[in-house]
Amino acid sequence: MIAHVRGPVAAVTLTSAVIDVGGVGMQVMCTPGTIASLRIGTEVQLSTSMVVREDSLTIFGFSNADERDMFELVQTASGVGPKVAQAMLAVLDPDRLRQAIGQGDLATLTSVPGIGRKGAERIVVELKDRVGVTTTVAAGAPAWRSQVHEALLGLGWSTRDADAALERVSADLPAGTEPDVSSVLRDALRTLAKSR
């Protein structure tokens, strides 16, 4: 496994760069964002992921380790190979990609060339618990609200269902009071059970 390459940029194309590593020109496949940051003759260090196939060894390069880690993670989903994974990172930065997967945002995922609705659904199902995103409610929301929201998500409800239940329950709460979290959670669960 080659974790990174460092050296002067010898050449840049639309899809790759050649990095001179100790006198050896390493061709590294890169996203457009990474390519745009490279200048011939300047020294760079790219985090890399090596993909081994029967007929090829391909090195994919990224401007940071976070991009590389997301590239490797999304490939663990069925039907996602290195080209689609690279396209995902060309369109979405790692944080936005994490959010889209964690929140089941199919519209954002299908904006990536090569990912249809079924593929996006599969990616969400397979990776939602592995992307490390905690869905948050609006900034400035009371602490009890985010606690109940997280609890509902932890119990398997979708973000949309949790938000809707919280809206219904919070409408019945007296203004300016700090409600009991367990009572609000119980009321939210009752509301969700009725809506099924």
TrEMBL record:
Annotated region described as Domain III, given as residue ranges: 142-196
One Pfam family hit: RuvA_C
Chief place where the protein resides: cytoplasm
TM region positions: none
GO biological process, one term: DNA recombination
Keyword Phosphoprotein: no
SMART domains cross-referenced by the UniProt entry: HhH1
Subunit record text: Homotetramer. Forms an RuvA(8)-RuvB(12)-Holliday junction (HJ) complex. HJ DNA is sandwiched between 2 RuvA tetramers; dsDNA enters through RuvA and exits via RuvB. An RuvB hexamer assembles on each DNA strand where it exits the tetramer. Each RuvB hexamer is contacted by two RuvA subunits (via domain III) on 2 adjacent RuvB subunits; this complex drives branch migration. In the full resolvosome a probable DNA-RuvA(4)-RuvB(12)-RuvC(2) complex forms which resolves the HJ.
Protein's job: The RuvA-RuvB-RuvC complex processes Holliday junction (HJ) DNA during genetic recombination and DNA repair, while the RuvA-RuvB complex plays an important role in the rescue of blocked DNA replication forks via replication fork reversal (RFR). RuvA specifically binds to HJ cruciform DNA, conferring on it an open structure. The RuvB hexamer acts as an ATP-dependent pump, pulling dsDNA into and through the RuvAB complex. HJ branch migration allows RuvC to scan DNA until it finds its consensus sequence, where it cleaves and resolves the cruciform DNA.
Protein name in UniProt: Holliday junction branch migration complex subunit RuvA
Chain's gene name: ruvA
